[in-house]
Design goal:
It is a single chain. The chain has about 90 residues and is mainly beta. The protein has one domain. It has 1 helix and 4 strands. The chain has a 4-stranded antiparallel beta sheet. A hairpin with a 5-residue loop joins β1 and β2. The longest helix is centred in the middle third of the chain and has 7 residues.
């Protein structure tokens, strides 16, 4: 398992978060839950004990894209000053 820097307390931004939920019985689970700025919008009886933003979750998961794809090397300088020349066809 990877170590994750969980946030405790209440999120500062509204939106969907990846959370660790602890139930009264002592069991726990992970879930995706919406924070509306004041409370977690959920129907379960557990307590959210920690959370990650979705951006943090994606950065912490070592996964690959599900399709084979061509890797395009990052260009260090545009071919010209025009925006249409800064894109490369694959």
């Amino acid at each position: 398992m990877s170590k994750v820097n969980w946030h405790k307390g209440k999120p500062t931004e509204s939106g969907t978060h990846f959370v660790a939920v602890k139930y009264v019985e002592g069991a726990g689970t992970f879930d995706f839950i919406e924070w509306d700025g004041k409370k977690w919008n959920t129907e379960f009886d557990g307590t959210v004990i920690a959370y990650l933003t979705l951006e943090e979750l994606v950065k912490n998961i070592p996964f690959e894209w599900p399709e084979n794809c061509k890797i395009v090397p990052k260009s260090t300088s545009p071919k010209s000053g025009k925006a249409e020349n800064s894109w490369e066809e694959m």
